[in-house]
Specification:
The complex is a heterodimer of chains A (217) and B (962). Chain A is mostly helical. Chain A has 10 helices and 1 strand, in the order ααααααβαααα. In chain B, the strands form 10 sheets. In chain B, strands 7-6-16-15-14-8-9 form a 7-stranded mixed beta sheet. In chain B, strands 19-23-20-22-21-24 form a 6-stranded mixed beta barrel. The two termini of chain B are 36 Å apart. The chains are: A mainly alpha (217), B alpha/beta (962).
Chain lengths: 217, 962
């Protein structure tokens, strides 16, 4: 009886098998690439906002401290977004007729909140706390980038779990000196020994940082 | 599935065996059904996909979900809005909760609370440590109040003849009526309200009584004995207590304070208080008694006379054999031995007990409740007036007499004779349906109010949120009657307090009182102590043959006001673990004599009135007694509470509201399947609750550890893990625990635990992270009753972790057995491998994520779980992390007492202790070193972090029988 498959079929099978493995691997690679891409993470994309607020101008050029507006960053899980009244402390005096500030004045008049588009987002099942990060010496810049150079605010980091864990696994590599957490850029430790000492002083329990329960409850 | 019919002979044989602990008569009789059930994680059919759907579609869905698994996480991050305040409220820190002092009121009496608020949403209620009636702890009703606030079934609009109407319309009607009432001094004006201690309300009532002197007031509080004094006594100062049917640890306005005092006096290393208790139906206090005497109500009624005789050295001929020993014990503690009469005992009994306490060296009996400031009439008298047509307008404030009037009071029919009837309440209930007007009431978390606790401590109730449904407070309605301007409840409450505080300055006093939750030195002037009335025999001689009916408020639904409360409906009842319904409880021996079985539907006939009820064979009931609970059988309670159980008010008479003799019982032939959790999560046949008498404890303090030795740490195939930082652990002191289940409901409120409903409970799908197991030991006639709260044990060698294919349950560095919801794929292997049966699976989408009001209640620090995810006790990891962050931000290390899980905080008995077992100075480490400490199923070498302290009794060696 004649053979059903010619000898060349062997090659075909090999090519199909190898190709299949390669295709699956390629698909995984491509998907993970897409997942990490700035399209998915929105890194570097400035969002439309009701008012084109410039952190570069306020924080960078005028040198207003982060906590002037984000009042609760060091004491709460939320950094806090300034109420309209905070904007109007200055803008009732300066640029008080500027058309781009009309939404802010409207908000004060009508009592309706401004609706900002959130730039830095984490999923609802992640329980992030600003105050503890600031106390431990994770600077604003570490997550939010050089806000003092952003005319329009964009996300600086991917805010994905892998990125969180980079720091939670090696907290000593990203610490800032006492009193420089809100600076752009903050002052890093001189050496590993200094970083280790800061961690101790700040009561950071490094072993707990990679617990699931540290962020997920 | 109907419960099996048990052969009483089997029961007797089984009971004569070893002193095993059993949960149900099925277990005691070792029925094949029970054996089959215990072999399975869930009953037959519970784990199956019950929805209609073809196999082909099922496979298709399975294939698709497998192929797309994981992809769901890889989506573009969604856009969100950030909405800041325009003007940020003072003191509010976004993301941090605020706590406000207020007071929960049950049956008129205040218990101080602290209410947690997240950005204006009240989410959780804790006890106010400064308040004498709560002392930082809570009961189930205080925990449950938060869900009642958000109940979507609450009344949302005024109703005129059942149709929505405007509140302004009502007030204009009232204004028109006022002139007529003024003319005849309010002769046709009547008010029905629940018991109240509110200074503002009592003040307004006094003013109304002056304005309309012919008006009459009726207090209708079905779950309270208005003839009994509710002034608290000191439990802590007693050495011996003899309770005559007094369930003082679990019911009544001072129960939390009593429990605190009681457990403090039950330390076996110090002089223990001894509790004797005589009762007809098992109660939580009865379960704590060193000697629990199971007696008929008639025999209990004879006890004061018999005690009096024994105190005078003469023995009553028909006195029980144990009585002389008890009386000797009472007599040998002059001034430190107290007799308590039960809430639902007769006035004669209360008077007799007051006299006995006088003899036992107590200075004066506790003063009676403060007098009511207006002319009163009873509900029968009011109903007669209504039926005769002499009532022209009736105000029903915060009570539901159409449902809860005794059966011999035809309130509902008489209501039709009254031209103008106004009902004010949280729900458009049975009474609202029959009234001309219904006005939605503001919840106490929505309006200003005030109240006093049973010891006279006055508190202000401050609102935490605007009325969700536009409710009015009773103060506003009475103010309208007084022709006062509608200024809101704040003005009325403040004005009253200002009147009662003549010495300036008022403002600091007012602010301090609101902030602290109670007025400084605020006890009302104590009424003159009445001299004990002359002794009289409290009851007619017993009529033997017939059955006796006992009517009591439901332990969780109370008088029916919590019928629409899903948490309370699904909270297993202390003695039966019954949920979502009530039953007629009877002693197994009596049922056997009458030829009745567990689950038989019977007709209860009492004074010509009939009710059909399923029969529950309850060990520890007195012979020939039938216990029924009020609060069920409602028809206008809401979507949760309608048509559950049977209405026991149909058997109640105003002459004998708490039951009486002459009950008849007839089987209908029908059978009933109960929804009960008493056999769920059974840990088969092991020495689970360890207990001993004080004498045995003193000869071998570590008796509990000898019962089943724990293997050494090395006897494991897994490497030993060293916990270097904190190591969280818990002890549950079974000697303190009274089994009240407040831990279960506090956990539910804290951890966003859903309810599942009656049908799902029958399938063993209840979701409580913390359950309270109840065991009986000994004969079904006179068992020892034991309680054991069981949360996740956080085993160091956790069996659940080893079998999870996706590492969704893992240990963290501090020894917590963490559950990672996002990883869980729902294999349920972990639950199957858990020897303690503490894992709960979301078989369906139990958490309501649609109803907007219910979203407001949720704890924002805990994930709301979805269908297909396993969950269990986390040791309140959100509170651990919050405490860690607070300490670290303050620049200090965590210290003992920083972390307080919800169950620990709520427990009135201080039975649960939580902390760092690596810190030898911590309270929990000290308790773990106590010789009474033992691990549940420790012989399995699971090395649980939660351990138990054995229960110690303080039995009188002279009494050998019970």
């Amino acid at each position: 009886m004649q053979q059903l498959f010619p000898r060349s079929a062997n090659t075909l099978v090999r090519v199909v098998l190898a190709g299949g493995v390669l295709a699956v691997a390629g698909l995984v690679w491509a998907l993970s690439g897409i997942n990490a891409s700035s399209y998915m993470t929105r890194v570097g994309t400035a969002l439309d906002q009701p008012v084109p607020f410039s952190h570069q101008h306020h924080a960078g050029e005028l040198g207003i401290d982060c906590r002037y507006c984000h009042t609760t960053a060091a004491i709460s899980k939320e950094a806090g977004l300034p109420p309209t009244e905070t904007c109007m402390t200055c803008h009732s005096q300066v640029w008080k007729d500027a058309p781009i500030l009309q939404p802010v004045r409207d908000s004060l008049l009508t009592g309706r909140s401004l609706q900002w588009n959130r730039v830095s987002t984490i999923p609802a099942f992640v329980y992030f706390n600003h105050s503890i990060h600031i106390k431990a010496g994770a600077s604003c810049m570490e997550c939010h980038g050089r806000m003092d150079r952003m005319p329009l605010t964009a996300r600086a980091q991917p805010f994905q779990m892998r990125w969180c864990l980079d720091c939670h696994r090696h907290p000593d590599e990203r610490l800032s000196a006492p009193g420089t957490v809100f600076q752009m850029p903050p002052q890093p430790p001189a050496d590993a020994a200094m970083a280790a000492q800061w961690l101790r002083q700040r009561h950071v329990q490094t072993a707990t940082l990679t617990n699931c329960t540290a962020c997920h409850r | 599935m109907n419960p099996p019919r048990l052969d009483p002979a089997t029961l007797r044989i089984a009971a004569s065996g070893a002193a095993m602990q059993w949960r149900s008569l099925e277990q005691l009789a070792d029925t094949p059904e029970f054996r089959a059930a215990i072999q399975r994680e869930f009953p037959v059919g519970a784990s199956e996909f019950a929805d209609a759907g073809s196999r082909r579609r099922f496979l298709g869905l399975m294939g698709a979900s497998l192929a797309l698994a994981g992809l769901s996480a890889c989506r573009r991050q969604p856009m969100e809005k950030l909405v800041p305040y325009v003007k940020q409220p003072e003191q509010l820190i976004p993301g941090e909760p605020l706590f406000f002092a207020s007071a929960d009121v049950l049956s008129g009496f205040a218990r101080g609370v602290l209410v947690e608020s997240h950005e204006g949403r009240p989410t959780k209620i804790e006890g106010n440590p400064a308040h004498p009636a709560s002392l930082g702890a809570t009961d189930v009703f205080m925990q449950a109040a938060i869900l009642q606030l958000y109940d979507p079934d609450r009344s949302q609009t005024p109703l005129l003849h059942g149709e929505p109407a405007a509140a302004d319309h009502f007030f204009s009607v009232l204004t028109a009526q006022r002139t007529a009432w003024a003319r005849d001094h309010g002769a046709g004006l009547r008010f029905v309200l629940g018991n109240t201690t509110s200074p503002t309300l009592l003040d307004q009532i006094k003013q109304l009584a002056a304005l309309y002197p012919a008006a009459r007031w009726c207090i209708h509080e079905p779950a309270l004995n208005l003839h009994a004094s509710h002034a608290p006594v000191s439990i802590a100062e007693q050495d011996v207590i003899f309770s005559l049917d007094a369930d003082f640890l679990a019911s009544g306005p001072a129960a939390i304070a009593y429990t605190k005092q009681f457990q403090a006096r039950r330390d076996p290393t110090a002089k223990m208080l001894r509790l004797y208790l005589a009762e007809s139906a098992p109660s939580l206090t009865g379960a704590q008694a060193d000697h629990r005497f199971v007696m008929s109500p008639q025999a209990i009624a004879q006890l004061p006379a018999q005690i009096a005789a024994a105190l005078h050295g003469t023995a009553a001929p028909d006195a029980p054999a144990w009585l002389p020993a008890v009386v000797r014990d009472l007599q040998s503690h002059p001034g430190r031995a107290l007799i308590l009469a039960g809430e639902f005992q007769s006035p004669a009994m209360h008077a007799a007990v007051a006299q006995l306490n006088h003899t036992l060296g107590h200075a004066a009996p506790p003063p009676a409740d403060p007098p009511f400031p207006a002319p009163q009439q009873t509900l029968q008298r009011l109903t007669a007036d209504m039926a005769s047509g002499s009532v022209s307008a009736l105000f029903i404030l915060g009570t539901n007499p159409v449902y809860s009037a005794p059966a011999d009071v035809p309130f509902a029919q008489a209501l039709a004779q009254v031209p103008l009837t106004i009902h004010h309440g949280l729900y458009a209930d049975e009474t609202a349906e029959k009234c001309t007007w219904h006005l939605p009431a503001a919840h106490w978390l929505e309006a200003w109010g005030d109240a006093a606790s049973c010891d006279g401590t006055r508190s202000i109730q401050q609102p935490l949120i605007e009325p969700l449904y536009g409710g009015l407070s009773a103060h506003e309605i009475l103010a309208a009657l007084l022709a006062q301007p509608l200024t809101g409840s704040y003005a009325h409450v403040r004005a009253t307090w200002q009147r009662h505080h003549p010495t300036p300055p008022f403002e600091p006093f007012w602010r301090t009182t609101i902030h602290d939750g109670l007025a400084p030195s605020s006890t009302l002037p104590p009424p003159l102590p009445p001299t004990p009335p002359p002794f009289q025999s409290p009851s007619p001689p017993p009529s033997p043959s017939a059955l006796t009916l006992l009517i009591r408020p439901d332990p969780h639904i109370h008088d029916g006001q919590f019928a629409n409360h899903a948490w309370l409906q699904e909270l297993p009842k202390p003695m039966t673990k019954l949920v979502w319904e009530n039953a007629a409880h009877i002693a197994p021996a009596t049922a056997a004599r009458l030829g009745l079985h567990h689950g038989d539907v019977v007709t209860l006939t009492h004074e010509g009135r009939k009710v059909e009820a399923p029969l529950w064979l309850l060990p520890g009931m007195a012979a020939d007694c039938v216990l029924v609970h009020l609060g069920y059988g409602r028809w206008r309670a809401g979507r949760v509470g309608d048509h559950l159980g049977f209405n026991a008010y149909a058997l109640q008479t105003s002459a004998a509201p708490w039951g009486g003799t002459g009950l008849e019982l007839h089987a209908t032939g029908a059978r009933h399947a109960f929804a009960t959790t008493q056999d769920h999560s059974a840990m088969e046949g092991r020495d689970l609750v360890r207990h001993a008498d004080q004498s045995a404890y003193h000869s071998d303090p570590a008796f509990a550890q000898h019962a089943a030795p724990t293997p050494a740490a090395e006897e494991s195939l897994y490497p030993k893990v060293d916990y270097k930082g904190h190591a969280w652990g818990m002890t549950i002191n079974l000697n303190s625990c009274i089994g009240c289940s407040v831990c279960t409901i506090a956990c539910q409120a804290e951890n966003n635990i859903p309810v599942v409903g009656r049908e799902q409970v029958i399938k063993h799908r209840e979701m409580h992270w913390m359950r309270v197991d109840r065991y009986f030991e000994g004969s079904p006639d006179k068992p020892t009753i034991l309680h054991e709260p069981v949360p996740c044990m956080h085993c160091e060698n956790a069996p659940c972790e080893l079998v999870c294919p996706v590492a969704a349950t893992v240990h963290d560095s501090e020894g917590l057995n963490a559950m990672v919801y996002n990883r869980c794929i729902g294999t349920r292997y972990c639950s199957n491998n858990c020897p303690y049966k503490v894992r709960r699976f979301n078989f369906l989408q139990y958490a309501d994520v649609e109803t907007p009001q219910l979203k407001l209640q949720r704890n924002p620090n805990v994930t709301v779980r979805t269908r297909g995810v396993m969950e269990k006790c986390t040791y309140c990891v959100q509170r651990i992390e919050a405490a860690r962050i607070t300490a670290q931000v303050a620049g200090r290390a965590l210290k003992d007492g920083d972390v307080v899980p919800a169950c620990v905080q709520a427990c009135p008995a201080e039975a649960i202790t939580f902390g760092d077992i690596n810190d030898p100075a911590s309270k929990v480490a000290k308790l773990k070193a106590d010789p009474r400490n033992y691990a549940l199923l420790g012989e399995l070498n699971t090395r649980p972090r939660t351990t138990y302290l054995a229960k110690i009794w303080n039995r009188n060696p002279e009494i050998t029988d019970p």
